[in-house]
């Protein structure tokens, strides 16, 4: 089964980290406005923040960009080549041992229980509806396992998946030999081999996945179009984006909070670093209430770019 965790499994044993941000940047002949204008031509949501000699360009990356989403990766590649530093999500997020420990702990329910013990009657009825549509039996499966199934192959958009902003920037930074800092060094040691008792976070993940599956493949396409049209509130309110966000890190609150804290720390460091730093982070992490953009504004700095709140 292809699901939202397979990408993590594929890279869990990936190569070593790239050079840290502490390295001195090479002098850049590009002006700040050059970089921002070029990056925005890509269609990806881009924000600019100035703090003295430090400039931070924030790119909100979308996971699973539909292949027919009309955006221009080459423009973002050109902008990367003019930056001094890059901050990305780490490719090898956790060890294979931790990954399998997390997956096993959430693959099944405690003995003698079913999904009806954790979902309200309404949500249980909607889950049964999904079982009938897909010919599956979910009752004794773990909540995040079901969520992964509902948002994996069963919600796969037929034209396939194109390149994400994260993948584009990583490749361009490697070619330009830019110093790269990777955020998201996670550990699953707090999880043992026992069956994980479903909590509120796992329930929220599953209900979001049910909604995304009900919305169908058209919701996948609409999310991609909203992203490239700079309609960030529409991206965040997409049932597909909500499911992706709530189910990340196996819907484990410890890992979710740690990931957000690491991103916050990375942006604070970038705001104190002379030169131009391009930060490519998940769109929800960037633009959600209390996310990176809100945190930057709370420091008294001006964020220039597309609207990211519904109001």
Rounded mean pLDDT is: 88
Q: How much beta, percentage-wise?
A: 5-15%
The SS-based structural class is alpha/beta
Number of discrete helical segments: 14
Report the order of strands and helices: HHEEHEHHHHEHHHHHEHHE
Low-confidence runs (pLDDT<50, min 5 residues)? 1-29
Residues in helix, %:
40-55%
Task: Compute the CA-based radius of gyration.
Answer: 20 Å
Number of strands: 6
Shape designation: globular
In words, what does this structure look like?
α3 (73-80) packs parallel to α7, α5 (121-134) packs across α8 and α8 (200-215) runs antiparallel to α11. Helix content is 45%, strand content 11%. It has one domain (6-304). It is globular and about 65 Å long. β1 and β2 form a beta hairpin. It is built from 14 helices and six strands. The chain is of the alpha/beta class and 311 residues long. Strands 4-3-5-2-1-6 form a six-stranded mixed sheet, sandwiched between helices. The chain starts with 5 loop residues before the first helix and ends in a 7-residue tail after the last strand.
